[in-house]
Amino acid sequence: MYARVFPSAGLWISLGVLALIDVAAMAIGGFRIAGYAAVPILAVSAAAAGLGYLYSTVRPDERLAALCYGAAFLITYTLVGAILSYVGTSLNLPLLDARFAHADAAIGFDWLAVLELTDRWTVLGTLLRTAYFTCLPQIVGVFLILAATHQLKRLADFIFLFTATSLVTVVLSSLLPAAGAFVFHDPPAALRDAVGYDAGLWHLKHFEALRSGAMRAIDPGLIEGLVTFPSFHAALAVITVWAVWRTRFITYPALALNVVVIVSAVPVGGHYFIDIVAGLAIAAAAIAINAWRRGTLALDGWGRAQRLAVVRTLATLRAIALQFART
Fold first, then answer.
1. Are 172 and 229 in contact (CB under 8 A)?
2. DSSP category for residue 121
3. Does a cis peptide bond (omega within 30 degrees of 0) precede residue 220?
4. Per-residue pLDDT at 320 exceeds 80
5. pLDDT tens for residues 23-37?
6. What whole-number distance in Å separates Cα of residue 175 and Cα of residue 95?
7. Could you tell me which of 272, 233, 267 has the C-alpha nearest to residue 99?
């Protein structure tokens, strides 16, 4: 069923196209790959693909084949997407931090007050910081759970959603760049005790060097997440919960954890609240599009919820656009 094309032929073709775009963009921008970290990354991806071929032909095992091919795709795509993000950041378009902060203020969201609350409750700050860094283990968990429970179609859909939401956030963050709420609000060090003094600033050295033109060598072993708007953490939290929603005993723990992940993106990830809203909207739209392409956007309760999500997504994006027009 999934021999040699998992998660789908379309995704593999899209990955090839994105890789070519990376090569062209790097050539135009004067970028190069530094170090040798890409070698083991691609070697692991190739090994996973080789195992996928083994388990789809020589020793047929649909679950292991899907698991290996899916891992090969996601590892390679993550590298390709990260390079695209670095090249996009180098466009050095005007920073929109002031507008994002203004949008937060317009709906009554006080970013500094949230950080103060987090700092006041040390346990809360520790919980949020811990949750923020669970995204990678959760992705691994989704792969293992869906493969183990024979939900291979849902695993393929999760990979599609991961690709779609991350690609949209990379493109939008390149066109609508921001340094982040920690940079804009510049809170005193005393408010960083709970979330960490490096919170929301991990990306800053590469972000500024790319924008100034000082950085034109990309080391895949030292990649940082550069996306502020929209929040990919928020989008990933939603699609992760969606992926395991039909898995008994996993659904509600995953929901609880990812609600905390979404909350953590503000005081730990240094996101504006509007980043979270946009990330959630992108995830909702991606899930609805996936249902449409699968032909499952029916008029049952879940189908109506998906359609409502699309309507609300469009309304949210329209509101954001209007807010920008007024500022």
1. yes
2. S
3. no
4. no
5. 999 999 999 999 899
6. 10
7. 272
